[in-house]
Every structure is written in C-alpha cells, then in structure tokens.
C-alpha cells in the first residue's frame, strides 16, 4: 500500500469519504470503511505522477472521477475499489443522480451529471478559500490547515447558500435567525455551501 504524501492526504480522504457516504444505507459500516481505504489507495496510485501542488489545474481531467447514471459509465477507480472490497459498486450506489468529481491539490469539487452544471466544493485547503472561513459553518483542524464542512441530511436553501445533500445522515440542522447552528460531534469533510451567483 502506498504512503500518502501530506500534499494529497486530505484531498484523497475527502474524496473517498464522499463516495463511501453515497453507498446505500444498508451497506455495513465496515464495508464502507474498507471501500474508503481501498479507494484512497487506488487514487494515490493513479495520481502519484499527476499531482503538482504548484499547478493544481494541471492534470485535472486525468484526476476526474465520474459515475454517470444516464450512460451507465462508472469510473474505473470506483469499480476497482469496490471489487477490492467485495461488492458491486453499481448495486451499492444510493443516489438517483450521477456525480462528477474533480480532485485537485488543495480542493475537491463535485457536481451532478444531470441538471444545471453547478459545482460544490467539498474540501478546500484554507489558503485557497475564496471567502472567509466563518461564513461556512465549519470546524477547523489547525494542524493541517484544512477546513471541514458539516453534512446535511436534506437540501436546505437560504438566500446566500446552496448545499449538497448527504442523503444518509440522520443529522438535522437547526435554523435560528437564518443562521445554521450545528452540533460539532457530527462534523466531517463533506459539504460546503456555495454563494449564490457563483
């Protein structure tokens, strides 16, 4: 197994966590965790020669991960990680929409393959953040300079934000005075609100 370099560890963990959370709710936790670890290793092997921190956009198309339900295309990295874990990815995938993901140094973004092509950042290194951290209902881990975002169990809109749903979380946001209030025990790196108009 490959040892992740510090420059790609958070990105790959965030990407793998996102895909594991999209698996059906009846998939056991241990299976999801094994899939996540296998996907991290598969991505690390694939990206090892295509990860340039100084030029994050270089190799972006190569690092893209896609599951397109309409065409039936499943990215080989997802198939390989699922096979290593011992299940069929297509049968285990939960959502009824496909996902396109870009894994770049310092940032991981997703969007649905159908509908408006609106991208959502699920991980962003703090130094790359375009907006103040406090605007995003985050929990920070200062030791790695990363910003993690809270999951949502349903699509919630307010005038400034749009959230990607985490369909299998049992956590419900508490809205007070149009502000999102969270219990920090349920935080992990998935959702980032995107400002309206971006």
Protein described:
There is one protein chain. It contains five helices and twelve strands. It has about 200 residues and is α+β, with helices and mostly antiparallel strands. It has a single domain (about 5-195), classed as Alpha-Beta Complex (Actin, Chain A, domain 4). The strands form three sheets. A seven-stranded antiparallel sheet has the order 2-1-3-4-5-7-6. The longest helix is centred in the first third of the chain and has 19 residues, at about 30-45. The chain is globular, with a radius of gyration of 16 Å. The N and C termini lie far apart (about 40 Å).
- What is the architecture at the second tier of CATH? Alpha-Beta Complex
Task: Provide the succession of SSEs.
Answer: HHHEEHHEEEEEEEEEE
Q: How large a portion of the residues is in β-strands, by DSSP E?
A: 15-25%
Helix-strand makeup class: alpha+beta
Number of helices: 5
Radius of gyration: 16 Å
- CATH topology group: Actin, Chain A, domain 4
Shape annotation: globular
**Domain count:** 1
Question: What average pLDDT do the residues reach?
Answer: 72
CATH class: Alpha Beta
Please bin the fraction of helical residues: 25-40%
Unreliable stretches (pLDDT < 50, length at least 5) are 129-198
CATH superfamily: Anti-proliferative protein, N-terminal domain
């Amino acid at each position: 197994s490959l040892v992740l370099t510090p420059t790609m560890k958070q990105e790959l963990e965030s990407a793998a966590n996102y895909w594991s959370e999209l698996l059906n709710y009846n998939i056991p936790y241990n299976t999801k965790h094994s899939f996540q670890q296998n996907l991290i290793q598969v991505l690390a092997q694939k990206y090892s020669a295509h990860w340039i921190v100084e030029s994050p956009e270089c190799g972006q198309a190569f690092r893209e991960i896609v599951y397109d339900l309409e065409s039936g295309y499943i990215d080989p990295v997802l198939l390989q990680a699922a096979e290593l874990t011992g299940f069929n990815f297509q049968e285990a995938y939960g959502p009824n929409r496909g996902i396109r993901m870009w894994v770049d140094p310092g940032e991981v973004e997703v969007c649905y393959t159908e509908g408006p092509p609106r991208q959502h950042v699920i991980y962003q290194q703090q130094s790359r953040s375009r907006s103040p951290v406090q605007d995003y209902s985050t929990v920070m881990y200062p030791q790695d300079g990363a910003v993690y975002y809270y999951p949502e169990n349903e699509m919630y809109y307010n005038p400034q934000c749009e959230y990607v749903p985490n369909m299998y979380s049992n956590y419900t946001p508490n809205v007070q005075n149009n502000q999102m209030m969270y219990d920090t025990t349920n935080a992990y790196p998935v959702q980032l609100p995107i400002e309206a108009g971006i």
